[in-house]
TrEMBL record:
It comes from the Bacteria. It comes from Streptomyces lunalinharesii. CDD domains: ABC_KpsT_Wzt (cd03220). Belongs to the ABC transporter superfamily. Residues 48-269 form the ABC transporter domain. It holds the Pfam family ABC_tran. This is ABC transporter ATP-binding protein. SUPFAM superfamilies: P-loop containing nucleoside triphosphate hydrolases.
Amino acid sequence: MAEHMTEHHDDRRPAVATEHRAPTVIADDLHIVYRVYGTGAGKGSATAALNRIMRRGPATNVREVHAVKGVSFTARKGESIGLIGSNGSGKSTLLQAIAGLLPAERGKVYTHGQPSLLGVNAALMNDLTGEKNVLLGGLAMGMSREQVRDRYDGIVDFSGINEKGDFISLPMRTYSSGMAARLRFSIAAAKDHDVLLIDEALATGDRAFQKRSEARIRELREEAGTVFLVSHNNNSIRDTCDRVLWLERGVLRMDGPTDEVLQAYEDFTQG
Ligand SMILES: Nc1ncnc2c1ncn2[C@@H]1O[C@H](COP(=O)(O)OP(=O)(O)OP(=O)(O)O)[C@@H](O)[C@H]1O
Ligand SMILES: [Mg+2]
């Protein structure tokens, strides 16, 4: 098992020994395979497609995509872990597996507590107003109406949605993609999570919002949860995470302190 290194070379924060803390996520030789049906021969004409749909018996032409290959690591309470790697390297797939949304082909992933996956596609309703979505999102995360009411103002303030007018009472479809992403993040961040999985949620926010989000991620981590952050922005990772997992073609290439892994990754992508 690829245990992470214990030495910290990060002088902005004191080194914290986390080995004694309870594990929250354990991946043990985890393999994830997607199966894509109906690919290959006979594409093109509508009759060919119809024949394919009508054909009896087991589907032919199954294509397998081996997206995560034998990944092992242990995450503990209080850790904030960055996930990096080039496009298609398996980061989103790994988060979905941790969230329990994809079955393991081989190996296992154990998650302690309730994982929450916060993605760019999180289920908010475009035709509902921001207000309604705050309620909906809060309830979906298991908060009571009472709790949502208590935190409502905090969520709206954090999102900054109303900075440019009363947008929170307008439908989500009138928001820019950055505004929508901010509201999603704000809703998710209002709750303390056992395991919070964030997939590129900060990517569309502006600089000020990114800074606020990064601060909140550090808080969530201090509230004893575990945060996983997927990002192509190395600065976000540097400011938020004390440990980084680097995936390449589904394989865990490196697992260690943020500075070391980012350095190796930068050498790799520039080389
Ligand atoms: N639903 C799916 N069905 C089939 N293959 C998929 C599916 N989702 C992802 N894949 C494949 O799995 C591999 C890993 O994809 P994944 O989305 O996990 O990458 P990623 O690291 O998140 O990339 P990015 O940085 O672009 O978000 C890729 O080869 C991709 O084509
Ligand atoms: Mg992805």
